[in-house]
Specification:
It contains 15 helices and 14 strands. It has about 400 residues and is α/β, with parallel strands linked by helices.
Length: about 400
């Protein structure tokens, strides 16, 4: 895909490269920064959530332990502190901002520091350096985690104005379940109109995407069911015609290509939503879908191992889940068979009521301590160029600079 904008970027990049050579000041950064960057954020996916999925995978393989998610086998692993500017328990807005912008802030705030000043996200920074940018999620595009990469606000629920911050970003691909508050308020233009004025094409579903992708360098992919829908009743499930997170990543990769460097942030947002509801099997399903998207990035990595960095992390953990609950360790039997059977029989909802769900989790020896987030360091897994920096204890505000090789 070579468009006028691409040519402009190449020209700018050559000019900047020329400056760098003549001044000899930025060779370290140019040497260390990966050309292709994937940042995966499993919303709510702490160490316990990931190990719970691995326990289920072992059950499915007919083994006692030993099955792994692909990213937990990455060669570098660390733990990131995720407390906020003033709380031990982060929300996705503050933790997303720390990861994206490298600053601590307050819960509910996006893309601003603890004093409310706008902070530059890694996506904006790289966009200005000629990288193509893709931001995607399985929940709405203007939800907290993706918004941390382009928005600046003290109100994470001001969805209409958050969408407006996409305007002028120049990001090439945004994808998700839909856009909250797309119709506009008090007679203001819809988000769709504003995005189209800014040069974006909004596509609903893979067919529309295929029809328009060649004619633009800025595109927004939304699931087909989001058409004409403010997502007031978005329920964290794929509907007929929706595509998976893995397929969304494929669309993005095909769209932006590899002629120019890129930064892609891909969020598994449904993990958090399922964990809030303490829905064990649904949470695992979302983690496995998230893993499939990571497998897609691994395919890319295998053909560009010297130029690609993949980082997988979480903003915070959700639900306080544990393998094991109660006092009777001698009777330990985490009953995946029972949990899975009930989940399938209930149409993969995993509960008919909160109380029944709670009883079933307890019976299967799955513990949940909260229906909200919990305060604990989150895992960081890394592979590829610069991955060795993601080892040991770090703060979530360090992730941005580590990716940038600074
Ligand atoms: Zn949450």
């Amino acid at each position: 895909m070579i468009t006028m904008k691409s040519l402009f970027r190449i020209t700018v990049a050559l000019f900047v490269a020329g400056l760098s050579l003549s001044s000899c000041t930025s060779s370290r950064n140019e040497d260390t920064k990966p050309r292709y960057i994937f940042l995966f954020i499993g919303d709510g996916m702490g160490v316990n959530q990931a190990s719970m999925a691995e326990s289920y995978l072992s059950y499915k393989a007919g083994k006692f332990g030993g099955e792994r998610l692909c990213f937990t086998e990455f060669p570098y692993f660390g733990l990131a502190e995720n407390y906020t500017a003033d709380k031990y328990i982060a929300c996705s807005a503050s933790a997303g901002t720390s990861i994206a912008c490298g600053v601590k802030t307050c819960n509910g705030w996006l893309g601003v520091d603890k004093d409310g000043n706008p902070a530059e996200s890694i996506a904006c920074r790289l966009q200005s350096e000629g990288y193509n940018i893709g931001i995607m999620t399985d929940v709405p595009v203007n939800h907290a985690t993706p918004a941390a990469f382009y928005a600046h606000t003290k109100n994470r629920e001001d969805y209409y104005n958050i969408s407006k911050d996409i305007l002028g970003s120049g990001f090439n691909f945004l994808g998700g379940a839909g856009l909250y508050s797309i119709t506009g308020k008090n007679g203001e233009p819809s988000t769709q109109e504003l995005l189209e004025e800014d040069g974006y094409i909004l596509c609903y579903g893979a067919e529309e995407f295929a029809a328009y992708a060649d004619s633009t360098d800025k595109i927004v992919y939304l699931q087909p069911n989001a058409k004409g829908n403010d997502l007031a009743y978005y329920d964290n499930r794929y509907n007929e015609g929706d595509i998976s997170l893995e397929d969304m990543l494929s669309l993005c990769l095909d769209f932006i290509g590899e002629e120019e460097p890129f930064f892609i942030m891909c969020e598994g947002g449904g993990i958090d939503w399922a964990a809030h509801a303490n829905m064990t099997m649904s949470m695992i399903e979302k983690i496995l879908e998230f893993e499939e998207a990571i497998e897609k990035a691994m395919e890319f990595y295998r053909s560009h191992p010297d130029e690609t960095l993949i980082v997988v992390t979480a903003d915070h953990a959700t639900g306080g889940c544990t393998l094991g609950v109660g006092m009777d360790w001698q009777e330990e039997l985490v009953d995946w068979e029972k949990l899975e059977k009930q989940w399938i029989e209930s149409g993969k909802l995993n509960r008919s009521s909160y109380k029944e769900n709670e009883a079933m989790n307890t019976e299967a020896l799955i513990g949940w301590t909260s229906s909200h987030h919990t305060g604990c360091p989150v895992p960081v897994y890394a592979i590829g160029k610069g991955a060795e920096k993601f080892i040991g204890r770090m703060d979530n505000t360090e992730i941005k600079d580590k990716i940038l090789g600074e």
